Amino acid sequence: MTDTAPDAPVILKTKITTPFPKADLVARERLTDSLSRGIDGRLTLVCAPAGFGKTTLLTQWAHNSRHTCAWLSLDARDNDFIRFWRTLVRSLAGKSGEPTGQRLTALTLSLQDISVSTFLDELLNELYELPGKTVLVLDDYHLIGDTRIHDSLAYFIEYLPSALHVLIASRSELPFSTVKWTAKQEHNELHTATLQFTADETAAFYRDVHNQPLTDEQIRRLAARTEGWVTGLQLALLSLQSGTDAARFLDEFHGDHRVISDYLFEEVASQLPPDLYSFVLKTSVLQEMDADLCDAVTERTDARNLLELAKKSNLFLLPLDERDAWFRYHHLFAGFLQELLKRKHPEEWLRLNRLASATCISRGFMSEAVEYAIAGEDYPLLESCLKAHIPAVLESGELGNLLRWFRSFPQEYVIPPALSLHHAFVLLMTGQAERAEQLLDRVEASLESAMEQEERKELQSGLLFVRSNLMFITGIFDKWFAHIGTLLNDILPADPAFYTFNYNRTEPLVRRTPLGLKGMLSPDTERIGTMFAGLLEARGWQGSYIYLYVMQSLSEGYYEWNRLEDSRKLAVLVSRSAPAKELPGLYVPVHLTQAMLYAADGRFELAHAAVDEAFEAASGLKDSRWRQLLHGARIRLYLKEDRSADVKKALPQLGVSGKDKPGFRQEFEYVTLARALGSQRKEKEALRLLELLKPQCEREQLLSGIIEIAILQALLENQRGQRTAALHHLHEALELGAQNGYIRSFLDEGPAMESLLRAYARQYRLTRETAGQGDGLQDYVSKLLSLFMPASTRRVTPDPALAEELSRSEISLLRLIRQGATNKQMAEQLTLSEGTVKVYLSRLYEKLGVSSRTQALVTAQELKLLDAGE
Q: Beta partners for 90?
């Protein structure tokens, strides 16, 4: 029932699979032809009230069309920006072929981390690669009420590639303007009058399809009474097939659609066998159903047979998959039955929804379980569902639904403080910091009331986490310091729902994420990060994701500040943690940081070893995003080493081209490509890429990206003799760099940057007003220049004195590492326990300044530690 993708949330296959048409359908060529004629435009709207056959028509057309169709069946839960676009893109990915489909699926993982416009631009760029005409069908769009979704869809359609067409079915007009597309004859519409059955189609329905013995006059009267309403014709057929006198029936058959439907549904339902009537009434609470779910709700064991009987009786049961396992009732029929159940058996309505919720919990359908608990007004059950489901929803990013679920509690219902903390966290993650803080204040106030000590500590732990995130996001440190002072001496438990939140799903470095303040550095950020980490250490929370991400962000910040030893210590600490061996968002950044540290020391063999280790860890991932980042890191090392042949050979593995319209999500790869192009003297191509990337970094407020691009623009312009433009870009980078204390971003560019900085300094002295603004910037440039060392004095190998620090046991360990021995084999050889071997290895790594066997071996070879006595 589900569609899965690497590292992506589960999506119901039935949502993105074109429904299968029923066999007994009237061929409506005039409508399918109209749909086909409109495909050359950008948008088709099929708009009519319920029961006019919109879905049936689109299903019929999609299965007979020569075009590729991506389908999305919408429901109320899709009123969530992340969920809507994630599901839509996954539908398109399934029809796009590879590698476009894989890239589209990977794009959905960045939905939580980038702005709407950046995401949409990325998506549209990818869709320009579609090989042929693809039609995206959005069914039941009237269920969407989120204005963010409406605005983003309008933007999407505005810039739609010519290879794509959007076909929307809705009961209401679109909530955004289509005038421009209509004027350009790119907007096709089918409305109620068009969808109504004609006299010929009505005759075909009764005679050719269902072989019903009605006279021409009776068929004409039916067509007139129903006004071509497809569901009315089908209901009339069911009533007539049950033995109703045709003449009497036609005399009584009148009124508007709602009156007619209620009358006819009542007629149909009242003539069903008792078992089947009870079955359809009870199962009407289900949005989608299979036999097992029906058995649970009806408390029977013969649902499979009754579903088959309902199908044969034409009871508006629509198949949702190719195996005939999942179904739903026609919305009108379900609505009628639900209203009947609520009116006549209100307690049964609530009980059945609660049964459905409990069954969905047992089957792992947690989102559905939440919806049924809300319909069943069982708020303790809703509370229980949310507690179990919140971590998965936080991971998926579908926070709009979480907020809607929290709003479903009645005002008088007292939500437990622990759940309110989650509510506050969701508010914070959706940009509602003020409301989040108000809720946090209420939770904190509840600590004063009588409660168990353990419960109070759990709440304090959650408060610490959410308030810390509030501080990281808003940058308001004072309140956090005041709050944290009350907790310094408390030992608090770590709530896994909070402390295993993954802060990095796509970025090569943590300081590019919101937690890393997108590259902003200051004494405050260091102080807050250090104090926060110390607080977590004191409680034994070194394994929590947030601790490791903060430590990794600090390590990257120290590297940028040129505090290499501080950076190295934290990188080693993070790399040895268990989560850093499992989370790509941790192990890729920590290995890249180690590679940068080794490269800064001129130890390129170790730098490549660090990247290779990350490649090995990422080998089991199906998502190619992380491997692309590592390819980029490897190319950057080759460029530093002037290995042009290796650069050329490795570039195709990046998966990007100089002719692309680059997207922000792959900024690291495209900047790497720009560097490579610059090394090949293709400055114009490189600058084109950077000009397109820079506004995206500015839109996302990614400081580290803006500075890197400005630096690279300066170097490229200088390389092609455009000194004025080069100094302009350098000035921009220096202004931002000075505010944040950036050093390595300039230092790592080597002699070319040193030369350009000297040119800048000369111009600064000549024309202060144009070259700089104040002595602070001049001092900053002077500091940077003082840090550039002549090549002859740069450290290439570590201090040989290190050899004296290693014990005989440690030298023996190194030799066993070289032989490929396992910890167990080492223990046997040295007559030690495995635990002691681990301790010795840890000490060895610390002395060598490395974090793995590979790095230890490379360093030992550099220092010739293993030569003695061999």
A: none
* Residue 262 exposed, middle or buried by CB count within 10 Å (0-12, 13-18, 19+): middle
* Pick from 179, 224, 184, 185: nearest CA to 202: 224
User: Could you tell me which of 773, 706, 669 has the C-alpha nearest to residue 520?
Assistant: 706
Q: What is the mean pLDDT of residues 662-672?
A: 87
Q: Does residue 89 contact residue 105 with C-beta atoms inside 8 Å?
A: yes
Give the 3-state DSSP-derived string for 759-822, with helices as H, strands as E and coil as C. HHHHHHHHCHHHHCCCHHHHHHHHHHHHHCCCHHHCCCCCCHHHHHHCCHHHHHHHHHHHCCCC
Token pair for 683: 């400055």
Contacting residues for 844 by C-beta, under 8 A, at least 6 apart: 806, 810, 813, 814, 856
Question: Which H helix or E strand runs over 590?
Answer: helix 584-600
**Can you give the length of the chain in residues?**
870
Question: Rg of the chain over CA atoms, in angstroms?
Answer: 33
Residue 382 CA to residue 376 CA, distance in Å, equals 9
Structure tokens at 85: 């676009």
Rounded percentage of the chain residues whose pLDDT exceeds 90: 31
Distance CA 653, CA 445 (A): 55
E-strand stretches of 25-65? 43-47
Q: What residues contact 384, with CB distance under 8 A and at least 6 apart?
A: none
Residues 301, 295: contact at Cβ < 8 Å? Answer: yes
Task: Calculate the CA 579 to chain-centre distance.
Answer: 20
Tokens of 772: 């700089």
Q: Which amino acid is it at 834? A: E
Q: Which of left, alpha, beta for 364 (phi over 0: left; psi -120 to 50: alpha)?
A: left
Question: What's the Cα-to-Cα distance from 120 to each of 225, 334, 398, rounded to whole Å?
Answer: 47, 36, 17
Positive or negative: CA dihedral 137, 143, 148, 154: positive
pLDDT digits (tens, 9 = 90+) for 207-224: 766 677 777 777 787 777
Contact yes or no for 307/319 (Cβ under 8 A): no
Torsion of CA 281, 283, 287, 290, to 10 degrees: -150
Question: Whole-model pTM?
Answer: 0.72
Q: What are 24-41's pLDDT values in tens digits? A: 677 788 888 888 888 888
- Whether the Cβ atoms of residue 662 and residue 480 lie closer than 8 Å to each other: no
Q: Which residues of 671-693 are buried (b: 16+ CB within 10 A; e: fewer)?
A: bbbbbbbbbeeebebbbbbbeeb
Q: Among 199, 202, 153, which residue's Cα sits nearest to residue 178?
A: 153
**Which residues, other chains included, contact 199 with Cβ-Cβ below 8 Å and sequence gap of 6+?**
219, 220, 223
